[in-house]
Amino acid sequence: MFTQDADFLSIAHAWAAAGREFAGVLFGHQLRVTIGQAIHNLELIAEIMELDEMRNRVEYLPLR
Fold first, then answer.
1. In sequence order, which residues have a C-beta less than 8 Å from that of residue 2 and are 6 or more positions away?
2. C-alpha distance from residue 37 to each of 7, 32, 58, 60 (Å)
3. By C-alpha distance, which of 5, 6, 15, 3 is closest to 55?
4. How many domains are contained in the chain?
5. What range defines the domain where residue 14 resides?
6. How far is 53 from 35, CA to CA, in rounded Å?
């Protein structure tokens, strides 16, 4: 799941700390990633990662 919602990011971190299973979150701060960067990064992640690799993870965009 991709989000720019900081509250959702906090929830994802709390779930990870508690050992709760979730599909994974990709977070892009509205002031730090352009729409073009986000789309490019999301396409790249979709091409190179399997669903299980993203499980229980929080990743930040833009990728470096």
1. 25, 26, 27, 28, 38, 42, 61
2. 22, 10, 18, 12
3. 15
4. 1
5. 2-58
6. 24
Could you read off the pLDDT of 13-61 as tens digits, one per residue? 999 999 999 999 999 999 999 999 999 999 999 999 999 999 999 999 9
Amino acid at site 24: G
Residues 6 or more apart in contact with residue 13 via CB below 8 angstroms? 58
Does 51 fall in a domain? yes
Q: Return the amino acid letter for 13.
A: H
Would you state the pLDDT for residue 64?
84
What letter represents residue 50's amino acid?
E
Instruction: Retrieve residue 50's tokens.
Output: 């399997």
26 DSSP assignment: E
